Amino acid sequence: EMLNYSKYYFLREFKKFSGNTPLLYILEKKMRRAKELLSEPSNTIASITFDLGFNDQSYFTNVFKSHFGITPGQFRKEL
After folding, report:
1. Is 49 exposed, middle or buried (0-12, 13-18, 19+ CB in 10 A)?
2. pTM value?
3. Cβ proximity of 48 and 34 under 8 Å
């Protein structure tokens, strides 16, 4: 609304610029941050889940696994 664009125009332009929809762009950023947070042993997976804005750990684990092919716990063990 601030730019006086329709949401469809914004979505189209955003995708042209970034290559992804806003939702996928944000999810990609969250997954990168998840890897950083998982690298710090003091962070629990539960706290990372909520810090990144996911409502439950199961959903976060599923998204992480679909994105990277392993669960957050497996990722942490491989470090």
Report:
1. buried
2. 0.83
3. yes
Question: Half-sphere exposure (CA, 13 Å, Cβ side) for 51?
Answer: 15
CA distance 42 to 40: 6
Looking at residue 2, what DSSP letter applies?
T
Q: Which two tokens stand for residue 48?
A: 């990372």
Position 79 pLDDT exceeds 90: no
Q: Give me the DSSP letters along 9-50.
A: HHHHHHHHHHSS-HHHHHHHHHHHHHHHHHTSTTS-HHHHHH
